[in-house]
Specification:
alpha+beta, SH3 type barrels, 2 domains, seven-stranded mixed sheet, about 25% helix
Length: about 250
């Protein structure tokens, strides 16, 4: 196991409403970050688009408070940084490489089911940059939510323990994830998005296959060709190539 990254804070809470909310409170209190907040229990966890994120006991919920330089668009690319860090952490604890895939824009799959999700929230500094960024990570370490708790057509949730037999607790998993994220973050800040994009694409789920992007008022089906340098998914549709910045992707 790699050592805890230098200069990165760590807080472990027995319970909170959500680690995203707790990290936001820490940001408002002036905590400079980077700082990880891990909660062993959440009472109001949330995922993308305000959806509830179920967290049975033994699962992982943590958020990283950061104050990065750069534009909001650059900050948003850290969803790819986080996805790669999660993949690295899974590999470190012994999960086979061919069992892990990355689903655009912010999910990690294990043997075809969703094992982890990523949520980014930021606040503007009023000058074209961001005052802070919070990277939230949820991982089904022990158990997975039931089918009734997921959106229609979504991939089934799975847990690390149920699929692989690997048992790890949240604090142990954070000890793998935090160093992995620090390494990928250094790569991102030092070399830009290009190497992150290349690494992400090498593990992308359904690259070269047909997927459906669900937008607020329509759906677009096409062959998943690429992720561009802005982080958009690129689909080859019957009407030509289309780049999509935000959507729910159904495989």
């Amino acid at each position: 196991m790699k050592p805890w990254p230098e200069g990165v804070g760590r807080r472990v809470l027995s319970q909170t409403d959500s680690t995203m909310a707790e990290a936001a409170r820490r940001a408002r209190d002036g905590v400079p970050g980077p700082e990880w907040t891990l909660a062993l229990r959440q009472t109001a966890g949330r995922g993308r688009r305000g959806r509830a994120w179920a967290m049975p006991e033994g699962n992982f919920a943590a958020s990283l408070l950061m104050r990065p330089r750069g534009s909001p668009a650059e900050a948003a690319q850290r969803s790819f940084v986080a996805a790669l860090a999660l993949r690295d952490a899974f590999l470190e604890i012994g999960v086979a490489e061919d069992r892990i895939a990355l689903k655009w824009p912010n999910d990690v799959l294990l043997s075809g089911g969703k094992v982890a999700g990523i949520l980014l929230e930021s606040e503007s500094d009023g000058q074209g940059g961001i005052a802070h960024l919070i990277v939230g990570v949820g991982v089904n370490l022990a158990t997975a939510p039931g089918a009734a708790e997921v959106e229609r057509g979504a991939l089934p949730p799975v847990s690390l323990r149920e699929v692989t037999g690997t048992a790890t607790d949240p604090e142990a998993f954070l000890a793998h994830l935090a160093p992995a994220f620090a390494v990928r973050e250094q790569q991102f800040t030092g070399m830009g998005f290009a190497p992150i994009r290349t690494a992400w694409l090498s593990a992308a789920a359904r690259l070269g296959e047909a997927v459906t992007a669900r937008l607020p008022h329509t759906e677009v089906t096409g062959v998943f060709r690429d992720v561009d340098m802005d982080g958009n998914i690129v689909l080859q549709t019957p009407d030509g190539q289309r780049s999509i910045a935000a959507a729910e992707i159904f495989l």
